[in-house]
Design brief:
Helix content is 3%, strand content 54%. It is built from one helix and 17 strands. The protein has a six-stranded antiparallel β-sheet with strand order 7-6-8-5-9-10, with no helix packed on it.
């Protein structure tokens, strides 16, 4: 990358400067996800909840709980990154119930989107921790046992921001009874500000026993305006699949 003039400085590595927080109003986002068992000949979103992701239309993301009670996680803190009811960026924390981690605990600020969660405790979770609705039946984010963080190739641009995707990647993990003849991946976006459904923006395929595809956008994919959902899907043919995918973007605060 050539040098870029910014104020009084020549920048030789723009991505490093953004990651360091040295360019005002700019930040980087890395989203990575996995779906360990996609049904053959079926399109699924790439997140650790499996199947189609349930994008809510209102701020229905309100509670957390763990599937099985874990003594070491009683009172353990969970961090959630997403958007509040007005589509503004929010990062909040909430402790699991101090007596039984399976008890539903209400978070302080209901959210319309959650795209990352992680455990803030020196404990390895031994059963899944969910971020869900008030019934605990609709899961919007999940951390599988042992992971301590979500795997979601899903993101939503906050109000007041514009995003630019720099690249995305897809990979198929070859395994017994999980070796599809080919797997088609799609990069999708839905402009919720205008009430649109998902539209495919790019697609790649990986043949049987293939490993990984990485697509770099030059110029970057954009402008991706506020309240746009971004996701990656996979469609394996003839056999189930274990896949992973993710994308990088630059997030710019609007003037």
């Amino acid at each position: 990358m050539g040098k870029i003039w910014s104020g009084r400085h020549n920048i030789s590595d723009l991505m490093l400067e953004i990651a360091k927080g040295d360019i005002a109003g700019h930040s980087s986002v890395n989203k990575f996800g996995a779906n360990g068992d996609i049904a053959k000949n079926t399109t699924e979103d790439i997140w650790d909840g499996g199947g189609d992701y349930p994008f809510p239309t209102t701020a229905d993301i309100t509670h957390i709980h763990q599937e099985a009670d874990q003594v070491a996680m009683r009172g353990g803190v969970i961090e959630m990154q997403g958007l509040d009811a007005d589509w503004n960026k929010i990062t909040q924390t909430k402790a699991l119930d101090a007596s039984d981690t399976t008890t539903l605990v209400a978070i302080d600020t209901p959210m319309i989107r959650v795209f990352r969660a992680r455990v803030l405790a020196d404990v390895v979770i031994d059963s899944a921790v969910h971020v869900d609705d008030s019934t605990g039946l609709i899961i919007y984010a999940t951390m599988a046992a042992g992971n301590n963080q979500t795997l979601m190739a899903i993101y939503t641009v906050a109000a007041g921001y514009t995003a630019y995707i720099t690249k995305y990647y897809c990979t198929v993990i070859d395994a017994t009874n999980k070796s599809p003849t080919s797997t088609r991946f799609g990069l999708w976006m839905a402009d919720r500000a205008n009430g649109y459904e998902f539209q495919v923006k790019h697609a790649v395929g990986i043949p049987q026993h293939g490993s990984m595809v990485e697509h770099q956008f030059l110029p970057y994919a954009g402008k991706i305006t506020e309240k746009v959902d971004i996701k990656i899907t996979a469609l394996p043919l003839d056999e189930n699949a274990d896949v992973a995918a993710g994308f990088d973007l630059i997030l710019v605060e609007n003037d």
